[in-house]
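Working notes for the structural subgroup meeting. M.R. asked for a predicted model of this chain before we commit to crystallization trials. I am recording the input and output together here so anyone reviewing the notebook later can reproduce the run.

Input as submitted:
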Amino acid sequence: MNALTKWDPFKEMEDLQGRFAKFLGLSPTRVANGEKELMTLAEWAPSVDIIEDEKEWLVKADLPEVKKEDVKVNVQNGVLTINGERKFEKEEKDKKYRRIERSYGTFFRSFTLPEGADGSKVSAEFRDGVLKVHLPKNEKAKPQTIEVKS
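Returned structure, recorded in token form:
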């Protein structure tokens, strides 16, 4: 006697997606309690705001639950680089994760310094999950008010 098997095209799409992600070196679909989690974020990059005033450029990066020791700021060859890692919490014996949507792991952001930025005077501060990188402007890049004489 032949058994009929129900064909699920979405299952084949998930399998294909998983093989493609593995080929690209991305994280596979998460599995918990025998159920597959459809939403998977393989990488993450912190959100960044860049603000300019007459004295400097300010780069603000959101890094919640990242320790100061796990963040590095570097300026080299006219490029500002911010990298680090947000570590995944260890699952405790009496707690089970039912959904994981936040991204974990290493991150990397790089920005070309704007014309007129003084890369030798860059400073950074980290407080309340926000990294602030200050890029001061060169004296010649700052706007100057010129008195008009009659």
